C-alpha cells in the first residue's frame, strides 16, 4: 500500500502529471499492488483491489484516462486469488504497453498533417501533442512552435524545454497573447484530459480560448488523444468534473491577506465544444469529433452496458 500511496501523492501534487502519464502510473501502481497482495480469500482480494482502485481514481478528478486505466488494468474474471492476480498483472502490462504504442502512433498519424514550414501553437504540456510535433520535425519538416506559458503551473516551460532538446525553435508567450499571435499560426495542436461522447474536449484551462481564436482566424485546431482519454460515462450523461485547485497556485496568500472582498478561483481545465475542433488524432486514426461515441463504443475495450 505504501507504493500506492506514494503514486497517489505524486499524482495529487502533480509530480506525475499529464493525463497519459497519470494513467500509466495508476496502472503500474495497481499491478504492483496486486502482485504483492496477501489475501486469504477471494472476497478479501476483491475488496482490497476495489479500495485501491477508488483511492487512485480520487487523486485527480478530471483526467478520464485515470479511471479508464484503473478499470482496464484491474480487470479479472477468475474466482481464484492467484489467477486473478496474474490477470491484473497481465492487463496492467497490456495497458502500459498500449499507452506507449498509442503515443508513437499518434505521432506518426498526426505528423502526416504537418507541412514543412508550419508554425504550430500548443498549450500546456501534452505528450500526445508533442509526439506529433517531434515526429514531424524528425521527418525533416522545418517547423516552429509557439508555446503558451499555461498559468498558474507554467507547464509551458516543460514544453519549451522538451522541444529545445530536439532543436525545435520555440516562442514562449503568456496565455493572454494567444489571439494576438494567431495570425502567425498554421495549426493549433493540444492534448486532452477527456473527450466527451459528443466530441467536446476537456483540457488545460485556456484551451477553449485557443480554439475560439483559431476558429475566428480559420486556423486548423487539432487534438491529440489516445482512445483511453474518451469518457464512457458521458454516453449516459455523466458530467466531467472540472478540478478546482488551490488558490495559492494563483497568488501568494500573503499578497492578498489584507483584502476582505476578494476570492481567488483556480479551475485547472475547461471545455471546448466539438464545433471548434477540426480533428482528433487518436491511436486508431484521425476522427472528426462527431465520431467520439464510436470510439467509446467500439475501441475502448469494454461494453457500453458496463458503464
Ligand atoms: C495537463 C494537460 C494536458 C493533458 C494531455 O494538465 O492539460 O494537455 O493532460 O496530456 P496537468 P498528455 O498539467 O494539470 O496534468 O498528452 O501528456 O496525456
TrEMBL record:
<dbReference type="InterPro" id="IPR027363">
    <property type="entry name" value="M1Pi_N"/>
</dbReference>
<feature type="binding site">
    <location>
        <begin position="203"/>
        <end position="204"/>
    </location>
    <ligand>
        <name>substrate</name>
    </ligand>
</feature>
<feature type="binding site">
    <location>
        <position position="229"/>
    </location>
    <ligand>
        <name>substrate</name>
    </ligand>
</feature>
<dbReference type="GO" id="GO:0043917">
    <property type="term" value="F:ribose 1,5-bisphosphate isomerase activity"/>
</dbReference>
<feature type="active site" description="Proton acceptor">
    <location>
        <position position="124"/>
    </location>
</feature>
<feature type="active site" description="Proton donor">
    <location>
        <position position="193"/>
    </location>
</feature>
<feature type="binding site">
    <location>
        <begin position="17"/>
        <end position="20"/>
    </location>
    <ligand>
        <name>substrate</name>
    </ligand>
</feature>
<dbReference type="GO" id="GO:0046523">
    <property type="term" value="F:S-methyl-5-thioribose-1-phosphate isomerase activity"/>
</dbReference>
<comment type="function">
    <text>Catalyzes the isomerization of ribose 1,5-bisphosphate (R15P) to ribulose 1,5-bisphosphate (RuBP), the CO(2) acceptor and substrate for RubisCO. Functions in an archaeal AMP degradation pathway, together with AMP phosphorylase and RubisCO.</text>
</comment>
<dbReference type="InterPro" id="IPR011559">
    <property type="entry name" value="Initiation_fac_2B_a/b/d"/>
</dbReference>
<dbReference type="GO" id="GO:0019509">
    <property type="term" value="P:L-methionine salvage from methylthioadenosine"/>
</dbReference>
<dbReference type="Pfam" id="PF01008">
    <property type="entry name" value="IF-2B"/>
</dbReference>
<dbReference type="InterPro" id="IPR000649">
    <property type="entry name" value="IF-2B-related"/>
</dbReference>
<keyword id="KW-0119">Carbohydrate metabolism</keyword>
<dbReference type="InterPro" id="IPR037171">
    <property type="entry name" value="NagB/RpiA_transferase-like"/>
</dbReference>
<protein>
    <recommendedName>
        <fullName>Ribose 1,5-bisphosphate isomerase</fullName>
        <ecNumber>5.3.1.29</ecNumber>
    </recommendedName>
</protein>
<dbReference type="InterPro" id="IPR042529">
    <property type="entry name" value="IF_2B-like_C"/>
</dbReference>
<dbReference type="GO" id="GO:0019323">
    <property type="term" value="P:pentose catabolic process"/>
</dbReference>
<comment type="similarity">
    <text>Belongs to the eIF-2B alpha/beta/delta subunits family. R15P isomerase subfamily.</text>
</comment>
<keyword id="KW-0413">Isomerase</keyword>
<feature type="binding site">
    <location>
        <position position="60"/>
    </location>
    <ligand>
        <name>substrate</name>
    </ligand>
</feature>
<dbReference type="InterPro" id="IPR005250">
    <property type="entry name" value="R15Pi"/>
</dbReference>
Amino acid at each position: 500500500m505504501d507504493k500506492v500511496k506514494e503514486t497517489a501523492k505524486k499524482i495529487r501534487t502533480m509530480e506525475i502529471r499529464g493525463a497519459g502519464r497519470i494513467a500509466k502510473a495508476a496502472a503500474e501502481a495497481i499491478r504492483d499492488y496486486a502482485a504483492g497482495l496477501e489475501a486469504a480469500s477471494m472476497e478479501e482480494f476483491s475488496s482490497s483491489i476495489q479500495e485501491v482502485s477508488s483511492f487512485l481514481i480520487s487523486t485527480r478528478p478530471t483526467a478520464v484516462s485515470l479511471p479508464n486505466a484503473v478499470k482496464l488494468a484491474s480487470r479479472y474474471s477468475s474466482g481464484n486469488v492467484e489467477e486473478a492476480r496474474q490477470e491484473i498483472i497481465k492487463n496492467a502490462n497490456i495497458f502500459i504497453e498500449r499507452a506507449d504504442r498509442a503515443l508513437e502512433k499518434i505521432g506518426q498519424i498526426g505528423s502526416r498533417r504537418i507541412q514543412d514550414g508550419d508554425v504550430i501553437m500548443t498549450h500546456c504540456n501534452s505528450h500526445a501533442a508533442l509526439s506529433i510535433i517531434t515526429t514531424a520535425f524528425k521527418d525533416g519538416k522545418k517547423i516552429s512552435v509557439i508555446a503558451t506559458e499555461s498559468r498558474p503551473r507554467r507547464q509551458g516551460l516543460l514544453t519549451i524545454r522538451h522541444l529545445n532538446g530536439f532543436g525545435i525553435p520555440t516562442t514562449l508567450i503568456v496565455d493572454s497573447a494567444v489571439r494576438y499571435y494567431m495570425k502567425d499560426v498554421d495549426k493549433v495542436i493540444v492534448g486532452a484530459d477527456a473527450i466527451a461522447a459528443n466530441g467536446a474536449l476537456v483540457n488545460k484551462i485556456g484551451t477553449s480560448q485557443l480554439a475560439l481564436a483559431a476558429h475566428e482566424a480559420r486556423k486548423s485546431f487539432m487534438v491529440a488523444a489516445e482512445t483511453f482519454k474518451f469518457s464512457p460515462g458521458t454516453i449516459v450523461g455523466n458530467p466531467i468534473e472540472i478540478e478546482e485547485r488551490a488558490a495559492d497556485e494563483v497568488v501568494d496568500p500573503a499578497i492578498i491577506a489584507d483584502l476582505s472582498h476578494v476570492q481567488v478561483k483556480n479551475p485547472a481545465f475547461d471545455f471546448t465544444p466539438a464545433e471548434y475542433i477540426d480533428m482528433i488524432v487518436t491511436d486508431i486514426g484521425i476522427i472528426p469529433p462527431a465520431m467520439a461515441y464510436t470510439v467509446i463504443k467500439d475501441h475502448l475495450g469494454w461494453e457500453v452496458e458496463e458503464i
